Amino acid sequence: xxxxxxxxxxxxxxxxxxxxxxxxxxxxxxxxxxxxxxxxxxxxxxxxxxxxxxxxxxxxxxxxxxxxxxxxxxxxxxxxxxxxxxxxxxxxxxxxxxxxxxxxxxxxxxxxxxxxxxxxxxxxxxxxxxxxxxxxxxxxxxxxxxxxxxxxxxxxxxxxxxxxxxxxxxxxxxxxxxxxxxxxxxxxxxxxxxxxxxxxxxxxxxxxxxxxxxxxxxxxxxxxxxxxxxxxxxxxxxxxxxxxxxxxxxxxxxxxxxxxxxxxxxxxxxxxxxxxxxxxxxxxxxxxxxxxxxxxxxxxxxxxxxxxxxxxxxxxxxxxxxxxxxxxxxxxxxxxxxxxxxxxxxxxxxxxxxxxxxxxxxxxxxxxxxxxxxxxxxxxxxxxxxxxxxxxxxxxxxxxxxxxxxxxxxxxxxxxxx
Length: 418
Description:
The protein is α+β, with helices and mostly antiparallel strands. It has 13 helices and 16 strands. The strands form four sheets. Strands 1-9-10-11-14-8-7-2 form an eight-stranded mixed β-sheet. Strands 3-5-4 form a three-stranded antiparallel β-sheet. The protein has a three-stranded mixed β-sheet with strand order 6-12-13, with no helix packed on it. The radius of gyration is 27 Å and the shape is elongated.
């Protein structure tokens, strides 16, 4: 959520930020409700003073043996007014909180304005592979080991079923990525694969993205859409010492998304699925150091792709392409030789204090003083389906076999898979 001080001081900045993200909000409705609440709170404070004075008067008269019926009647009347006003304030508090949950985070000042067409390519690495034959897409190269029809019989369309070397490749990549992260100093987390609504709200999947989530109605739980949810929520309602920062975490999770708004997009093969595997990176940072942490996460994730020899490019997302909660985001895209296009494999986001305010995640300054909100960041490190697409399509040989990069070939026990 955004700071209420900002909402009061400069609501137009909030309105402009929402427009930049193509989000519809009514900031004026919030301002009016907040003003009404403050007026009511003044009345409440005055009535509390009156009630206290009446209480003292009643006590004094009783000590003096005097009749205090009038004061007691006024005290009851004042209490009834107080109760009515407090009920009104409680209702306004609920309305304000609901509106605030619908306000998106503001894009950073250096984020380009506009839609997807205004994303900026910041850098690229690697050479696009060339073939002396017509490269095939992964669904043809993996015909015997990737079986969407079988997955469909089990779970429905757009789920993954791997077998043989594809199943082993996925497992190998997950272990390799986790080892890469932990060697770099991240703590590995094995987290629940379901989350309460409170957790989904803290990281801002709710209420905005509820239609894209899988919900277990009987238990009021959600299948997690990303490892960001359980790993970040490890610190919900927690107070850290400044010396605890940064907190550097990673973890494997399956991710479940209904993709309710994605029908009609390219969903053939592994491009867009309802369940996919991912290793997530999460960072809890001191506000003064979150920019540096953002760059570090980007460098860390791109370093993995360089070890795998996969061509990639880094995009700075424009405001209209940012997620609801992100203030700034880098997308890493990798080359798909069989489809001749770039595919997103990681989004690395800085949320500033947006998630921390929603999830009440703070730190205690070393020098003392008021507690402060931490900054949260996260990024895929990496997402499996599109990573496998790139490895398979870019590594294909004329005979249909797949040549693996040395880092993975060693773990798979073979340089070529068929």
